Amino acid sequence: MGKLVVIEGLDGAGKRTLAAGLTEALNLQGATVKTSAFPRYGEDVHADLVRDALHGRLGDLTGSIHGMSVLYALDRRDAADEIRADLERFDVVLLDRYVASNAAYGAARLRQDSRGEFVEWVRALEIDRFKLPVPDLHLLLKVSTDVAAERAARREAADAERARDLYESDGGLQARCAAVYDGLAADGWLAPWQVVDGASNVNFSDLLGRLFTR
C-alpha cells in the first residue's frame, strides 16, 4: 500500500513546483509516484462548477461557504475510488490540495480558527460521510502572504488561463487562511504535518526522509 501525501498551502505558494520536484526526487530513488491536483478542473463537473462560481459566473453561489465546500468535497468523493486504486499501484500518491484546503479556506471565510466548528464539519463530511482516504502526511508549503500574492500575479501574467479567482484576489482571506493552516499543522489534523519553507530552496533529501522514516 502506497503513502498518501498531500501538499497544502496558500494560492501562489508554489505547490505545483514542489510536487514536480518531489516527484522527480522520488523517481530517482526508484519510487513510483502518481500526482493529482484538486479541484480537478476539466475532469469533474463539481470542480467545473467551483471554477465558474469563483469567477463570478454562478450568481451568488460563492456567498454560501458551506455550499462551495460541498462542491469541493463532491469533487474529491468522485475521485476516492481512483485514489484508493492508485494507492495499490504506486509507492506514493501525491496530491496538490485535499481535505485540509476545504477546512482552511472555509474556516478563514467564516473567521474561525483551526479548532472551530467548520473544520470539524468538513472532517465529518469528507472523512466520515464520504469515506475519503485519510492522508499519511501533509506537507505545508509555507510562504508569506506577500510572496504568495506576488507569485500568483506572475503566474496570472504568464498564463491567461490561470487568472486569479475571488479567493486568490482576497489578501485578507489569504492571511486568515495561513493562520488556519498553521493551527491545523500544529494540531496534526487528520495526519502528521511537516512544514516546508517555501521561500528557500527545498532540501528534497530531507523531505524524502520525512516521507519514508515514519
Secondary structure topology:
Elements: E1 3-9, H1 15-28, E2 33-37, H2 45-54, H3 65-89, E3 92-96, H4 99-109, H5 117-129, E4 137-142, H6 145-158, H7 171-187, E5 193-197, H8 204-212
Helix pairs in contact: 1-8, 2-3, 3-4, 4-5, 4-7
InterPro entries: P-loop_NTPase, Thymidylate_kin-like_dom
Pfam family, one: Thymidylate_kin
Domain Thymidylate kinase-like: 7-162
Mean pLDDT: 89
Measure the end-to-end span: 14 Å
Approximate helicity band: 40-55%
Count of domain modules = 1
Total number of strands: 5
CATH topology descriptor: Rossmann fold
* Distinct helical segment count: 8
The helix/strand order is EHEHHEHHEHHEH
Q: Strand order of the main beta sheet, please?
A: 2-3-1-4-5
Low-pLDDT residue spans: none
What does this structure look like?
It is a single chain. The protein is an alpha/beta fold and 214 residues long. It has a single domain (3-212), classed as Rossmann fold (3-Layer(aba) Sandwich), CATH 3.40.50.300. The protein is built from eight helices and five strands, in the order βαβααβααβααβα. The protein has a five-stranded parallel β-sheet, sandwiched between helices. Helix 2 (45-54) packs across helix 3 (65-89) and helix 3 packs antiparallel against helix 4 (99-109). It starts with a strand and ends with a helix.
Quick structural overview:
This protein is an alpha/beta fold and 214 residues long. It has one domain: P-loop containing nucleotide triphosphate hydrolases (Rossmann fold).
